[in-house]
Amino acid sequence: MFGNMADMMGLMGKMKDLQSRMKEAQDSLVTITQVAESGGGMVKATVNGQKALIGLDIDKDLVNPDDKEMLQDLIVAAVNKALDDIEPKIKEHLQKATDGVLPNIPGLDLGGFMK
């Protein structure tokens, strides 16, 4: 009986450590960035690991009030690509931050902690 209690306390300690490391990892996601472009590089969007748009570069030749829709489409495309491309970096960052805290459990996805 006491062995189970000690195991449970140890697991609780590991969970606290995991939560602490996840919080630190999530806070440091702002340091991870991804740039993506559309329109052959005429629009470049930069996002961070917290999935925030932190930079947008638009070629001056695209700024045409008569063709606003194309510019909007290119911005959306660049931002969405950057957000897609940063996903693997986020996952890798979180895995590194929690490496060794819990045993490697196949199928355990820590991405749920991000929500």
From TrEMBL:
GO terms for cellular component: bacterial nucleoid; cytosol. It comes from the Bacteria. Residues 8-35 form a coiled coil. Keywords: Coiled coil, Cytoplasm, DNA-binding. Belongs to the YbaB/EbfC family. Homodimer. This is Nucleoid-associated protein SAMN05660293_04946. It comes from Dyadobacter psychrophilus.
